[in-house]
Amino acid sequence: MDKQRWISLVGLANRAGKIISGEELSLKEIRNGKAKLVLLSADASANTTKKITDKCKSYHVPMRIVENREILGHAIGKEARVVVSILDIGFAKKLLTLLDEYQRG
Predict the structure, then answer these.
(1) What is the C-alpha separation between 33 and 28, in angstroms, rounded?
(2) How many whole angstroms from its chain centre is CA 19?
(3) Architecture of domain 4-104 in CATH?
(4) CA distance to 34, 57, 58, 105, per residue, from 84 (Å)
(5) Which positions of the chain have pLDDT values less than 70?
(6) What is the pTM of this model?
């Protein structure tokens, strides 16, 4: 499976207004229970990675690592992004399926 499918779905979720990007906004949405899936770039700083990972674990929000911040930013039509949170359960479920298939190879 090529990565284009999950990138396209993230773009669609963005156009639908169902995502939020950035570390602080994502942490807020995780705490509020609105984040259904968190995408974290593999090249995020150790501090950001720990903060996001710990928060996702304590609030039981699924998290997936993507290759890098440029791909994540490109998916939502912006500059490089380290953290993107999906706020819609439908998009989150489909993205989990696509990302798990993609990462399995």
Answers:
(1) 9
(2) 8
(3) 2-Layer Sandwich (3.30)
(4) 13, 16, 18, 23
(5) 1-2
(6) 0.95
